[in-house]
């Protein structure tokens, strides 16, 4: 029984903690990277503010210089004198990415300057001057034209009439039926032919993030006829010259001259006063007085000529009686960029845009991706899994580490940015920032986990990760942002685009920066994003947070699925196989998986050698009886690699049946490409069998690999080690995975190090990156044996070792095979002869022979090798050949060089005593320098079997 999930998590946590402690410099540099960006932005910002303040002071003292102008894009401190004409208006230097809609406003004289009977105008139809004291003077419009009766019908409809107060709940477009006016002193009203007492108009206005109802009073509009335009002009000029030059304003709101207009022609001249527009900044003023704090005042958009023309046009259309109407709903400014200023200080962060902040936040993505792919590429993940580490502990520890790293990274970003005065961080609520950055960092980690399943190379993953950051940032800036700022684009498309994590991040940064540098249309939002803004549909923050939360969960599920099943099809196939196996049984399932090639091979089983057939029968017998004395059973195991691009299928393993008992070392021999590596890969879970199955400790490799891993040890052909860990730390980690604790753990580590000769010279406490190839090999063997695994797979364990180390390794393996099964692959016949109790030779994907070393030599050797050396060039060579023929008529000379001859003599019918006796007698008559008789070696058996297999394959 392996370690519990909690124990596995603890082991992995300790191992990762050691690795990260040794990489602390790299981690610190990564976490402190935002300091570089914030320092650059903050330093430039401080330098610009310093230069600006010096320039302002010098200008003021010089007398003729222009003072430093400080702008405030929040529109909460805008220069407006209470006696000046105009309303609240943000400077043109402020940014305006999405221009707001404003109702058109007509300019009218303030009540104290409206035309009355005061001697300037000799018209008896003007109101009495007493209305000025009461502030009830109407706004006067003068009208003339060639057709008095027609014009009189038109002017009756220029101003609308409402008998009761109106409360509008719609947007600004609903105001098109009313004529809004402004008198230049923040007094707005709406014009009518007749105003009843207390008649008001209420309509909604958005100030920052709040929508309030704004009430405006009714002002009567007085439309008066004059006989000619010349008369009007003379009287207006006279009034200006006599008393109103200092005010730069006329007492008449506007003049209409309808010329020759009639039912079929509409000609119009409009006269109005344009000498004082809103937004004119008097450069003689050194300061910016604070706006009246009584309440918010809507910014008027003075479109005098278009609105006056629209009023006359609608009156004309109404007279025509055809139901036509030209509503003048709203006006908009052009969107613009600006130089952002906050609290009288230049803020460079919004000026450089959102892109640097987005790139900085995304920088951890390739770091996470490459770390995960590194363990995948170097097979460290599968190595840990083969020693019992489950998926849940691995992903839990990895996720927690990257989440901690991400939180520290974002925390340093926010702290450094706030300390250096960046309003992007300081203006927005820190709780809101934490929620959104925390959500995005979780999404980024899950996205990296998902993308890890598609990469097997660190280099490819690194390049792809940084390319993703660069391209996604540019797409966000130049493609996604225009969509967000375009109010005509459906929000559904914006939501679909935000499914890409980079776009979600950009939307967050965009909204935070937009509210931090509050726009003219949202001038009350100078406090940045607050909790109340979560439900603001304009910002879309609630939608972005929902998308990130849903995607986070889906990415994790898909990452787990692909990591476990490798592909979508493999998952479906494995699930179907599992269902069928539970219904029909494992053996029935294996039979259904056989392909055409393997069926043809099993049809020729009778061609197998006797020992192979006998082994197959033993496997079938113990599979039925469930004999527990056998640790590993290969039951007709086969593997076929499907051909691609029109190539034929490749049969790697052909229905191999082998039984391996406890306390035995089983050697797997074979030439290159014989299929032995594929066989080991199937037994260790690297690949799935195409047909048949194998049982390890009674568990099926197709369905129970996670349980099998807890009881096996693996020494792979390549040394899968961490360069930044020591040999002792490797054994500590794998020992904990094998459920070793306290004294037992340290005792097992010391024993392993001692048996592999890794204690001398402090080798055990050196980093593996400084080990030689032989040291790494011995450490890999020690890892495979720690924790008393019941089955150990060793793939060429002695490769790269010197003779002395090899002998020590053999000694350790021999002593370790007590009460466990060791499966060994090797190309060294000497190693197989020394270590293996049973040997199986595989060639062409099939088992050719099986047995102990002595059995194979006796069964497939079948001959001895007699070597005789005589003087070269003499007759002794022919005499020796005749002598050998007399001893064994079936002897065959296989070698003859410079007097040395080798003869292969069949063992059948041959007595070794007869050979010794004949050679001793021949030495008295022949000049025999030396002679020797040798038995068949395992190497001879291997070569012979391989040649026979090649010949049978060709045939």
From TrEMBL:
* Compartments where found: Membrane
Q: Which UniProt keywords apply?
A: ATP-binding, Membrane, Nucleotide-binding, Transmembrane, Transmembrane helix, Transport
Highest taxon, organism lineage: Eukaryota
Q: Which SUPFAM superfamilies match?
A: P-loop containing nucleoside triphosphate hydrolases
Report the record's Gene Ontology biological process terms. Answer: lipid transport
Does the UniProt entry include the keyword Protein transport? Answer: no
Q: Does the keyword Cell wall biogenesis/degradation apply?
A: no
What is the membrane topology listed in the Swiss-Prot or TrEMBL record? Multi-pass membrane protein
**Alphabetized GO MF terms:** ABC-type transporter activity; ATP binding; ATP hydrolysis activity; ATPase-coupled transmembrane transporter activity; lipid transporter activity
Q: Check the record and name the Pfam families matching this protein.
A: ABC2_membrane_3 (PF12698), ABC_tran (PF00005), ABCA12_C (PF24526)
Query: What are the boundaries of the signal sequence?
Result: none
- What range(s) does the ABC transporter domain occupy? 632-869
Q: Which Gene Ontology terms of cellular component type are present?
A: membrane
Bilayer-crossing residues are 355-374, 394-422, 434-455, 461-480, 492-510, 541-562
Q: What is stated as this protein's family in its record?
A: Belongs to the ABC transporter superfamily. ABCA family. CPR flippase (TC 3.A.1.211) subfamily.
The identity of this protein, by name, is ABC transporter domain-containing protein
Instruction: Give the species this sequence originates from.
Output: Zea mays (Maize)
């Amino acid at each position: 029984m392996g370690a519990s999930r909690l124990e596995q998590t603890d082991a992995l946590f300790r191992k990762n903690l050691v690795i990260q402690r040794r990489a602390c410099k790299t981690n610190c540099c990564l976490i402190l990277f935002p300091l570089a960006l914030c320092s650059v932005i903050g330093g430039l910002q401080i330098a610009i503010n310093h230069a600006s303040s010096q320039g302002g002071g010098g200008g003021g003292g010089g007398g003729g210089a222009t003072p430093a102008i400080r702008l405030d894009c929040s529109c909460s401190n805008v220069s407006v004198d209470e006696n000046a004409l105009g309303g609240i208006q943000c400077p043109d230097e402020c940014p305006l990415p999405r221009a707001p809609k404003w109702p058109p406003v007509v300019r009218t004289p303030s009540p104290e300057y409206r035309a009355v009977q005061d001697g300037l105008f000799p018209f008896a139809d003007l109101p009495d001057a007493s209305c000025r004291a009461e502030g009830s003077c109407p706004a006067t419009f003068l009208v003339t034209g060639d057709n008095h009766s027609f014009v009189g019908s038109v002017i009756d409809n220029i101003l609308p009439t409402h008998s009761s107060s109106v409360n509008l709940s719609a947007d600004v477009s609903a105001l098109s039926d009313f004529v809004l006016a402004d008198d230049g002193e923040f007094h707005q009203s709406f014009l009518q032919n007749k105003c009843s007492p207390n008649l008001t108009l209420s309509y909604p206005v958005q100030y920052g993030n709040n929508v309030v109802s704004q009430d405006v009073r009714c002002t009567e509009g007085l439309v008066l006829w004059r006989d000619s335009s010349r008369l009007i002009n003379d009287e207006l000029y006279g009034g200006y010259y006599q008393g109103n030059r200092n005010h730069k304003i006329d007492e008449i709101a506007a003049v209409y001259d309808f010329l020759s207009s009639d039912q079929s022609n509409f000609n119009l001249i409009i006269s109005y006063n344009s000498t004082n527009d809103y937004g004119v900044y008097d450069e003689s003023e050194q300061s910016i007085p604070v706006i009246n704090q009584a309440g918010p005042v809507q910014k008027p958009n003075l479109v005098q000529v278009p609105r006056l023309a629209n009023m006359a046009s609608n009156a004309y259309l109404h007279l025509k009686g055809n139901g036509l109407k030209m509503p003048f709903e709203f006006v908009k400014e052009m969107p613009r960029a600006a130089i952002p200023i906050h609290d009288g200080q230049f803020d460079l962060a919004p000026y450089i845009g959102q892109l640097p902040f987005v790139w900085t936040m995304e920088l951890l993505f390739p770091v996470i991706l490459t770390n995960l792919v590194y363990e995948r590429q170097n097979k460290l993940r599968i190595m840990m899994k083969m020693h019992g580490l489950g998926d849940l502990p691995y992903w839990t520890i990895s996720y927690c580490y990257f989440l901690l790293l991400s939180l520290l990274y974002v925390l340093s970003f926010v702290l450094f940015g706030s300390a250096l005065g960046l309003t992007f961080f300081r203006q927005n609520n820190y709780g809101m920032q934490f929620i959104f950055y925390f959500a995005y960092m979780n999404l980024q980690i899950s996205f990296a986990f998902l993308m890890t399943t598609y990469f097997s190379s660190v280099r490819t993953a690194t390049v792809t990760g940084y390319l993703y950051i660069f391209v996604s940032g540019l797409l966000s800036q130049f493609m996604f942002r225009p969509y967000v700022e375009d109010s005509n684009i459906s929000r559904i498309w914006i939501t679909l685009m935000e499914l890409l994590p980079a776009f979600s991040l950009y939307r967050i940064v965009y909204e935070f920066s937009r509210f931090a540098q509050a726009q003219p249309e949202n001038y009350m939002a100078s406090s940045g994003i607050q909790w109340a803004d979560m439900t603001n549909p304009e910002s879309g923050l609630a939608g972005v947070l929902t998308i990130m939360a849903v995607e986070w969960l889906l990415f994790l599920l898909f990452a787990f699925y692909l990591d476990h099943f490798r592909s979508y099809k493999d998952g479906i196939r494995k699930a179907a196989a599992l269902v069928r196996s539970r219904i029909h049984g494992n053996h029935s399932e294996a039979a259904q998986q056989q392909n055409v090639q393997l069926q043809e091979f099993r049809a020729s089983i009778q061609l197998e050698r006797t020992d192979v057939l006998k082994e197959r029968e033993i496997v079938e017998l113990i599979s039925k009886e469930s004999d527990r004395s056998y640790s590993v059973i290969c039951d007709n195991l086969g593997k076929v690699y499907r051909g691609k691009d029109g190539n034929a299928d490749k049969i790697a393993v052909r229905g191999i049946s082998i039984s391996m008992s406890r306390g035995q070392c089983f050697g797997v021999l074979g030439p290159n490409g014989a299929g032995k590596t594929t066989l080991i890969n199937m037994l260790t879970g690297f690949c799935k069998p195409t047909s048949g199955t194998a049982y390890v400790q009674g568990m099926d490799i197709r369905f129970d690999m996670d349980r099998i891993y807890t009881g096996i040890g693996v020494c792979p052909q390549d040394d899968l080690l961490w360069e930044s860990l020591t040999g002792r730390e490797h054994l500590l980690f794998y020992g904990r995975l094998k459920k070793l604790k306290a004294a037992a753990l340290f005792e097992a580590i010391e024993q392993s190090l001692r048996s592999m000769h890794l204690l001398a010279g402090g080798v055990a406490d050196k980093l593996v990156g400084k080990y030689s190839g032989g040291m790494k090999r011995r450490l890999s063997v020690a890892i495979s044996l720690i924790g008393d695994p019941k089955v150990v797979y060793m793939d060429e364990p002695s490769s790269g070792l010197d003779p002395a180390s090899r002998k020590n390794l053999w000694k350790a393996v021999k002593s370790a095979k007590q009460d466990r099964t060791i499966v060994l692959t090797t190309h060294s016949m000497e190693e197989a002869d020394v270590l293996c109790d049973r040997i199986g030779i595989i060639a062409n994907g099939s088992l050719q022979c099986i047995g102990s070393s002595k059995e194979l030599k006796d069964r497939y050797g079948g001959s001895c090798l007699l070597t005789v050396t005589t003087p070269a060039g003499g007759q002794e060579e022919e005499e020796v050949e005749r002598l050998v023929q007399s001893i064994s008529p079936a002897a065959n000379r296989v070698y003859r060089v410079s007097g040395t001859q080798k003869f292969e003599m069949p063992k059948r019918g041959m007595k070794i005593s007869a050979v010794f006796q004949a050679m001793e007698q021949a030495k008295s008559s022949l000049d025999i320098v030396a002679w020797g008789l040798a038995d068949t070696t395992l190497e001879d058996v291997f070569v012979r079997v391989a040649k026979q297999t090649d010949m049978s394959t060709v045939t």
